[in-house]
Each structure stands twice: as C-alpha cells, then as structure tokens.
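Worked problem 6 (solution included).
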Amino acid sequence: MARTLNGLVREALVEDIGLGDVTTNNTVPPEERCQVRLVAKQAGVLSGIEVFRQAFVCMKAEIRGWKALPDAARFKRREEVASFTGNTRSVLTAERTALNFVQHLSGVATLTARYVAAVAGLKAKICDTRKTTPLLRKLEKHAVVHGGGSNHRLDLSNGILIKENHIAAAGGIAEAVRKVRNGAHHLMRIEVEVTSLQELEEALNAGADAILLDNMSAEAMRKAVRRARGRKVLLEASGNVSLSNIRAIAETGVDLISVGALTHSAPAADLSLLIAPDSPGSQGMGSS
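Solution. The predicted structure is:
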C-alpha cells in the first residue's frame, strides 16, 4: 500500500506542477523554511492525513516536528489538524495536491459519519459502493471506514453480485445463480439484485446468500424482510438513498444499506493550509 500511495501522490504532483512551479520558484529563496498549520474551517471527520503528508515527503520538504490528528478523529471548526516545519518552496508547490487529497477524503468520512448517525440505534450497516473516483478507491473506502461505515466489495473479483444485466444474459435468476455457483469457490457468497417481491422469491428459492433490494419502496422492503425471515440471507437496500430517507429505509429491518453518494457526491471538507516564516530553533525534532 505504501508503494502504491507514493506512486499515486507522485503522479498527482506531476499533473499539478507541469514543467515547474513558476510562481514559487521566482518568489521564494531555495533554502527558506516555514511553519505549516493545517486548520479546519468546519467540523468533520479526518481521513487521508498520511497521503497529505506524503505529498510534502515526495517534494523533499524536509519535514520536522510533525504533529497531526489520526485518521477517524473528529475535529472542530478552527482546530489545528496538523502542523510541521518544512522547506517553503516544497510546501507551496505540494500544497494544492496535499489539500485535494485530505479535503476530499475527509469529506467522504464526514458525510459517512452523518449517514451512520442517521441510523443510530438500528441494525442496518451503512456501506459504500464501487461508485468511486478512478484510482482512488482504496483511499475512499478507507475514508468510509474512518467515518464509521462499512465496505462493500473492493473490486469485481472480491465478491459475486448478480445484477439485472447478468440475469438477462444468463436467462433468469435461477440460471444465473446456478452458473455462478458452479464457477465460484465454496467460500464466496452470492448476492442477487432484485426489483420486485416476485424476483425476491426467485432469488430466495435459488439459494442466494444475499439479496439487494434495488429501488424498492419502504413498504415493499418491509414485506421483503418478512418473507426472508427464517432464511439465512442478508438483505441489502440500495438506490436513491439520501439523508432524508435513510432512517425510514433502516426501519424496514434490512441488514445493509449501500450508498453511492458517500464517495461520488461527498463535498470536500473545508481545510486550510497556513504558513509562517520559521524562526531559528523552532524546527522541532526528527525529519522525513
């Protein structure tokens, strides 16, 4: 993971820097150092602090005196989230890349925490989906966990989910389940997406281990929960889930609720990077 993270950050820096940071290189002496503070301008949940730090490491900022809240920490408005001293040129050149990562990932964690809080006291777990930013999936899924949520499958090899197009291609739910059971190992669960109570019955009779209730009404989901009672099957709700309706969905008795908005629509957390000239003797201990 560390090597992958390093490569990802380096690519992001190359994208942003281009042929060189013309502004910084012409306004800041090469050896100048600064004190850096990452400050919250809103309350939220932190995620991505290591990738934030890695941006400055990749730019050889000679970080000293690093202090930071851990991932999953809740921060308040105006709270100092991280601080360190570093080479000013490197800090300013890496600033936007570092902020892009930590603001986005903290936004995912913060939004997830709101969804989790909305179903407090009920059994339903809040899950993410594969509706993630290309190449940022692992980081975004970590952010969901930092916000108190749970991860759905990481990739297509990580679990079986038979969706409507698989059903159409296979010739029906029963046939799709039969085919995938013959091709998968015995430790892998089989989930089937259904859009009606009739399809639910087909999936139950086919021996599905989990059933995704796609865009079904609250009343239909309550009936689905009753029909599945006594069966060894997990029920997952999905489709058009929002903060305004998630508690009503959870109250139907489903086991899981998957929310694409956690990763594809989370607003960035409002975090600000502030610098000040570094005075002699304030460089702290240790470096990276």
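Discussion: The longest helix spans residues 88-118.
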